Write a sequence for this structure.
């Protein structure tokens, strides 16, 4: 027997539910692996006044990361490139980001295969910047801005949030969570400098040794995985 009253189906998400993080958070964590930014952090922690310098470095990084995420979210909605507005435009953005990540992965892979002496030579400029930042908070702030300019992986995370269909408040919350995830390798040492400062130097030295051996190869693998994700999702939306 047919229902007397045909109730409309509810298709919108709960206004306080954050559904985008299952896709966006892994992308943001992958974006946290950027060897030059981590090298700057390690050099700053070895300076004479690590806490204010690392705090200033974090402030610059947080400003550009959160700001770029919120601006990207607004642009995605305003330019009608979310999947809800236009599947083809959304797919084109995914394909573009995927194609951008392919040369990034190749570049990181080549850096990882260079002899250690060549990689250390390539880091001399960053080391010089870090030495200047060690005596100047404006330099530390500027390096935070520069090193954490949005990467294609982070832009993919913002695109996934924009496509979630969540409420505006939930999307903003998701962007802030992803921004904090991108900054994870700055936040943990910064907290440790206040909680257990004596243990920071040894721990960061072990991290530095591991990064010298593996960080570029890891960055290449993550960029390649992000490219495959973006291309597959983009092609699916273009069909």
């Amino acid at each position: 027997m047919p229902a007397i009253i045909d109730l409309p189906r509810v298709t919108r998400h709960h206004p306080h539910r954050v559904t985008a993080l299952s896709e966006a958070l892994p992308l943001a964590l992958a974006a946290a692996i950027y060897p030059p930014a981590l090298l700057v952090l390690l050099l700053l922690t070895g300076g004479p006044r690590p806490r204010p310098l690392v705090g200033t470095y974090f402030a610059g990084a947080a400003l550009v990361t959160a700001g770029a995420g919120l601006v990207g979210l607004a642009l995605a909605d305003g330019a009608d490139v979310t999947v809800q507005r236009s599947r083809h435009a959304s797919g084109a953005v995914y394909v573009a980001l995927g194609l951008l990540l392919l040369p990034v992965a190749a570049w990181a892979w080549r850096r990882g295969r260079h002899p250690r002496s060549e990689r250390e030579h390539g880091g001399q400029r960053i080391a010089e910047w870090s030495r200047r930042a060690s005596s100047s908070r404006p330099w530390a702030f500027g390096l935070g801005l520069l090193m954490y300019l949005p990467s294609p992986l982070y832009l993919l995370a913002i695109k996934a949030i924009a496509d979630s269909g969540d409420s505006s408040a939930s999307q903003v919350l998701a962007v802030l969570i992803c921004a904090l995830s991108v900054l994870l390798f700055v936040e943990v040492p910064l907290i440790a400098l206040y909680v257990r400062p004596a243990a920071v130097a040894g721990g960061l030295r072990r991290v530095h040794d591991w990064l010298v051996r593996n960080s570029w190869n890891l960055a290449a693998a993550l960029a390649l995985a992000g490219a495959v994700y973006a291309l597959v999702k983009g092609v699916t939306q273009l069909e």
